[in-house]
Amino acid sequence: MHVSIVGTGYVGLVTGLCLAEQGHRVACVDVDTAKIARLADGVLPLYEPGLDELLDRHLGTRFFPTTDLEKAVKESELTMITVGTPIEDGAISLKFIESAADAIGRALGHKPDYHVVVVKSTVVPGTTEDCVGPALERASGKKVGVDIGLGMNPEFLREGEAVEDFQNPDRIVLGAVDARSHEWMVRLYAPFHDAQKILTNTRTAEMIKYASNALLATLISFSNEIGNLCSAAPDVDVVDVLGAVHLDKRISPLTPDRGRITPSITAYLRAGCGFGGSCFPKDVRALIRWGQDHQRPVRLLTSVLETNEAQHGEVVALLKKHFPSLAGIRVSVLGLAFKAGTDDIRESPALRVIPALVREGAQVIACDPVAIPAVRLALDEKNIQYAQSLTEAIEGVDAIVLLTAWPEFLQLPDLLEDLTEAPVVIDGRRAFEKARLRRYEGIGLRSTAVTKPGFDREGVEAEI
Ligand code: NAD
Q: How far apart are CA 311 and CA 315, in angstroms?
């Protein structure tokens, strides 16, 4: 099939290259001319395992980056919209969706054949039919359901595992306004014959994406709340508590030979320093606002966000138990990306923790295998040094804070073993074996430091 994709970010690029891998001819469009020029030269604008091989294999043969939207749309049979849907003033902004739909509509005005437009961006229920459809009709002078097919196909890829997730989908949700649009979307995904396809209307497809992300965000905030409660009691470690919760057979079913199936959802039932990234915080916010606009109370998800927004304060509070004043303290921050495997720092815990430490006078040494360039641009702080390797990052520091569990950071206990004066380690991901570190603090574990009389934990959290 000939496909055009409007918006060549994480989703557009991964979708484009993976569809090319399946044999489709794909033009990926973006308004960012520099990004398209680099892509045309074979340079990826983002880090994602496996994407470089796909670009090498398909650039110029089945994959064509371009800024010429009209040509890309006219030469294709189906167009996907994968532009950003950011939050503005607490609600989803559809400005990129509207302008993409308008440009696609204008191109379709010059195309005689039937064409299908599919929204892949995450949008609140009703957007495809009430916003994208009318914009296409206005700009093209054509009719949705007659000359133009319209659909909604949410994307479930996880950054860091995006290529793998796209190639091996757990479900393909296809919302459409009519049977003909469904037929074309099924044709697009025909190479993924093993994947379960859910054919539904566009509003249900839009809601499935929000429900999926809201569930995962809820599990994380639930785990963090349990962790914070565990840390209030002596000898209760959230790792033991949630580890045993995972063994509930309704979560990890027993197999007939008394083995276990450990579902990957247990990865979301772990305490840490909070969720970030381009999706969970944004999507939960958008859903809360959408519910409020529709006079539906959104109590649980409001608490999920509040819990998350306070969670990075737990990390700083643990550090302050050892150093009530952070002035002049050298702190190594390990992990800047919102999770391992990506250079995406959007809403990363590091972007909250580092400024909080710097404000209190700490000298921060920030380390990440791939996300340093992004953080240099995002944080204009003088008191941050950057370290390329773990060894460099921990040299002569008073404390180490782990925020992203990159596998390369897990050798920390080996590196600290022979030091005469061990730095304090604050494990924001509960990734280390606590017995292997002399001065260890972890989320969901009662602090080993003696609380100084008059030390006000609430006050610490309120400041950051
Ligand atoms: P992104 O910001 O990485 O990319 C969006 C791209 O669209 C940018 O390159 C931008 O220049 C381009 N763009 C904007 N307006 C355009 C226009 N009129 N014409 C052509 N290009 C235009 O965004 P993303 O992370 O890929 O997310 C895209 C959508 O997919 C969002 O709705 C997001 O919520 C959703 N989503 C993202 C992920 C993820 O992991 N990143 C996963 C699932 C769904």
A: 7
Residue 177 sits in the same domain as residue 322: no
Whether the CB of 331 sits within 6 Å of ligand 1: no
With a 6 A CB cut-off, is 10 part of the ligand 1 pocket? yes
The minimum-distance atom of ligand 1 relative to the CA of 162 is 40
Q: Is residue 217 part of a domain?
A: no
What is the β-pairing status of strands 25-29 and 2-6?
parallel
Owning domain of residue 359: 235-442
Residues of the chain with pLDDT under 50: 451-464
Q: Which positions are catalytic?
A: 279
Q: Do 154 and 282 belong together in one domain? A: no
Phi, psi of 288 (to 5 degrees): -60, -50
Burial class (CB within 10 angstroms; exposed 0-12, middle 13-18, buried 19+) of 319: buried
pTM of the model: 0.93
Centre of ligand 1 from the C-alpha of residue 144, in Å: 24
Sheet architecture: strand order including 399-402: 384-387, 363-367, 330-334, 399-402, 424-427, 440-442
Encode pLDDT of 30-59 as tens digits. Answer: 999 999 999 999 999 998 999 999 999 999
Write the residue with the smallest CA distance to atom 44 of ligand 1. Answer: 155
CA 1 – ligand 1 centroid, Å: 22
* In contact, 17 and 54? CB cutoff 8 Å: yes
The continuous run of DSSP H or E covering 387 comes out as strand 384-387
> Which H or E run includes 58?
helix 51-58
Look at residue 378 and tell me if it is in a domain. yes
> Contact at 8 Å (CB) between 332 and 397?
yes
For residue 29, the CA-to-ligand 1 centroid distance in Å is 11
pLDDT at 450: 54
H-only helix segments in 120-273: 127, 133-140, 162-167, 179-188, 202-230, 238-246
